[in-house]
Specification:
Elements lengths: L7 H4 L2 H11 L8 E6 L5 E6 L4 E6 L12 H11 L9 E5 L2 H4 L3 E5 L17 H20 L16 H16 L5 H13 L7 E3 L8 E3 L7 E4 L6 E3 L2 H11 L1 H6 L17 H12 L6 H24 L3 H5 L2 H16 L10
Antiparallel strand pairs: 1-2, 2-3, 3-5, 4-5, 6-9, 7-8
Helix pairs in contact: 5-10, 6-7, 6-11, 7-11, 7-13, 8-10, 8-11, 11-13
Amino acid sequence: MSEPGVAIDDAVPADRLAAWVRDTIPEASGPLVIEHLSGGSSNLTFRVRDDANDWVLRRPPLGRLLATANDMGREFTVQSALVATDVPVAAPVARCDDTDVIGAPFYLMQRLDGIVYDDADAVAHLGPDDAAAASDELIDVLARLHAVDHEAVGLGGFGKPQGFLARQVKRWTTQWEAARQDDVPAVDEALRRLAAAVPGEAGAAIVHGDYSFNNTMWSRDDPRRMVGVLDWEMSTVGDPLTDLGMVVMYWGDMGELLWRQRAPQPHRLNPGFPSADHLVERYASTSGRQVDEIDVYCVLAATKMAAIIAGSQARLAAADPERAATLTPTIEAVAQIALDRADASSIPALRGR
């Protein structure tokens, strides 16, 4: 849900950023070249170069933000903690909380050079064996992330894992109620069922929050090797199966719906990409975790996504109410995907019984 027309001068005033870079980064050299890479209603991403360096800048979107969203400190902290682990991330460079510099908190990290497998064109070079291996790598990196000792890497206070899943249901209920522009009964019903179906604790791990092919980068030379996990704005320490549930839902109808204007989901076009069931089984085998209640996490993932889209809609409503209104059918469709998964589950509370 990127918003078109983000002006670089509005989001990243070049003169003020250049002055901050000169004062903060000793290796800075020469004038800055700034290029808008992605983002609109999620965090904005820019490429920033000088004569000797190639960085990526991340900052929140322009306009009103929901509470707890778009936290630059969160992204910078978790990447700093993970840079020395076996989880591939871009190396952080510097962080700025002074909103007088560019109008919002931001940070710089080293730019990774690779491919994001986010549409059919991006995976056209993959044979069936490469597609299968990349899918396994996607899950294996997730399992490695969840195996990192969060306390040992300095993230002991990064989240509150006790009661995490119940709080997630409450959080996204609150986000939905704060952002909603229209009544969508399917969202309300999914949240009601989730509140009744929350399982016991599944352990504590570093959670990405929005893990998928779209938020990972892959080697240009070795299509089976991931070079970076991107976009840590929703990361925390909590129940690791929330990440797996999101992967599963992106792998199916929800991913097809959300990315329909860009291109079909790549795994729909290449027989080498496995089923979502394979991904769950791979994760269980690699991580050693129980996945019997994965349906709860899948329903949460889709319901959370409906609330996130509602947040984008709320920010857009004042500036472009007609365009904001077009997001309501997407919210309804994503919420229905959540209910369809709930209805098919073997978990009685999730089926509304």
